Amino acid sequence: MKQTMIKQFNSLSQLFTKNIIQMNDVWASYDSKNYVLKEITLSIDRGVNYAIVGQSGSGKSTLLKLINGMMLPSKGVVKFDYQTPNMTDKKFKPMLSKIGYIPQSLGLIKNVSVLENILIGSLPRINSIKSLFKMFPENELQEAERILKLVGLEDKASRKAYMLSGGEKRRVAIARALMQKPDILLADEIVSELDHVTANEIMDLISDTKRRLNLTAVMVHHDMRMALEYADRVAVIKEGQKILEIGVEGSKIVDFQTGNMTQQEITELYSDDPKK
What we know:
Radius of gyration: 19 Å
Number of helices: 10
Shape: globular
Helix content: 25-40%
Largest sheet: 7 strands, mixed
Number of strands: 10
Order of helices and strands: HEEEHEHEHHHHEHEHEEEH
């Protein structure tokens, strides 16, 4: 009886609670000596576009690894939908498909077609032997084709990944993540090394997809201006610590969780211009 009540409570919490990500006093280290992240406390609401901004080595990518369970905190608590993310924990395995993760490297298979790269996102749902022989169910093929159209690559389905442009590769990575049918999309520097026009096209695609599918998006950026343009909230990370969090409405900064900086000061702090 007690276990049944706990299961019912967990199910209700996932349906009705506001936060999808919670971190409380989180510290993280790769060598048990030097901390990459220190004293991180934050919460991310469902359905928002949340940006994490910082310079190289500030700990941004580590935050994403904590959220998807690739890494465990040295201290503190991390929760995804009130469960502890841990890729090696069988109890968390059913939740993995709910987290669409796009690494900085994108993780595409270069000599495989666009369609086959996208279908990788369906692997948690299908028989492993069938997937080995590329025997994907018709409904999964139809879903992949629908997503191809959503990201604007319907005419590139048979093209090998290595033949694509930088922007097209990112669209494939987004499509593969969407194929998982996730609740949250994590993207690590997905527009880095792209020209301004292509970067904005990718960010527009993510924003539109997030809205259409009612997703939560957590994006890592080094460009503060990009974050302010697209995010609902922006966390600024410096030397492993969150120094402030900003609420954004349109072109306006509406609140600061910590710190006392103007929009211009923040923008200059993380400007792409090397002179600043």
